[in-house]
């Protein structure tokens, strides 16, 4: 049996789980296999088991059909929109997930909010990026959060954590999602508002929707057009929720003033991507779930999934 561990960008997978407890050969891929189907399938054609790190490498129906040896696909997390589960069932490929913590994403959301509010993208320097002699000691005026309005678009598990932290900063919290009730919003100290109110009133607006046909492009020119000048938009959910072209236009008009983004249509993001050339964009490379504790849980769960599948009693089944 051959096991492939994909997208181990930090070269940590080997040390975070007991892969030696599994029979056969385990191969760790630290580099991204690319976007081309042929390159991905050629690299994985001899593997019986593949462990995918979240949605870094998609497994479409076409890719799955080109991997006849693949019998088990494990994804970290219990949801992965980039795996065609119907095709996996049709092809007899078992798909399992692993558990993890949502706290990491909520924490990174606040890292981005604070980075944007205090313009750390401009002010930060370190031993790896020393302050140039000609660089002013202080260049910007930060934005205080106390007394400002935090808008949460999607008050699920992650959004609720973000909302509670907002209260600790002394922010007024408002929220909206399609099925949200006033009672549910009040449970986390938020006020239920309409979608238009959410965008119009928020000084900081953070997105925590699940991507679906209903939520794709849910943030477009109309929504961005009512945001306050000087406001901050944060997205640690999925990039397709925002109309990217509309966001670029809105940033150019100054409302919102800043967009702190952790998710992108193409990942890894090309160095010449136009978002990186857009003033007002603060970008991180999809770090929302990337913590040592989270990866330890992910990889230990993957080992358990593989062992259970080998024993004929698969667990955490997705397909």
How does CATH name the architecture of the largest domain?
Answer: 3-Layer(aba) Sandwich
Structural class: alpha/beta
Please indicate the count of domains: 2
> Could you tell me the number of beta strands?
12
Strand content: 5-15%
Brief overview, please?
The protein is α/β, with parallel strands linked by helices and 319 residues long. The protein contains twelve helices and twelve strands. It folds into two domains: 116 residues, 3-Layer(aba) Sandwich (Rossmann fold); 181 residues, NAD(P)-binding Rossmann-like Domain (Rossmann fold, 3-Layer(aba) Sandwich), CATH 3.40.50.
Structural descriptors:
2 domains; 12 strands; 15% strand; seven-stranded parallel β-sheet; globular; 319 residues; Rossmann fold; 32% helix; alpha/beta; five-stranded parallel β-sheet; single chain
């Amino acid at each position: 049996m051959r096991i492939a561990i994909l997208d181990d960008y930090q070269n940590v997978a080997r040390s975070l789980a007991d892969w030696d407890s599994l029979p056969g050969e385990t191969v760790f891929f630290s580099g991204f296999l690319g976007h081309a189907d042929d390159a991905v399938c050629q690299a994985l054609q001899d593997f019986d088991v593949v462990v995918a790190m979240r949605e870094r490498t998609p497994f479409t129906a076409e890719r799955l059909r080109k991997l006849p040896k693949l019998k088990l696909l494990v994804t970290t997390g219990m949801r992965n929109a980039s795996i065609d589960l119907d095709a996996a069932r049709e092809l007899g490929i078992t798909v399992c997930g692993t558990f993890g913590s949502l706290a990491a994403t909520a924490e990174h959301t606040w890292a981005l909010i604070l980075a944007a509010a205090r313009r750390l993208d401009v002010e930060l320097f370190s031993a790896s990026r020393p302050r140039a002699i000609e660089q002013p000691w202080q260049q910007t005026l930060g934005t205080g959060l106390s007394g400002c309005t935090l808008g949460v678009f999607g008050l699920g598990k992650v959004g609720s954590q973000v909302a509670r932290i907002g209260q600790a900063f002394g922010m007024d919290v408002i929220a909206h999602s399609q099925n949200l009730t006033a009672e549910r919003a009040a449970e986390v100290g938020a006020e239920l508002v309409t979608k238009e109110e959410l965008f119009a009133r928020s000084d900081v607006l953070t997105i925590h929707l699940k991507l679906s046909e209903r939520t794709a492009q849910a943030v477009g020119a109309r929504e961005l057009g009512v945001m306050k000048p000087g406001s901050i938009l944060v997205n640690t959910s999925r990039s397709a929720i925002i109309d990217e072209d509309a966001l670029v236009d809105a940033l150019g008009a100054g409302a919102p003033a800043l967009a702190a983004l952790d998710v992108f249509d193409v990942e890894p993001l090309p160095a010449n991507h136009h978002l990186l050339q857009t003033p007002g964009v603060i970008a991180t490379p999809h770090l929302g779930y990337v913590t040592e504790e989270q990866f330890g849980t992910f990889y230990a769960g993957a080992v358990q999934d593989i062992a259970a599948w080998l024993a004929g009693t698969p667990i955490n089944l997705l397909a």
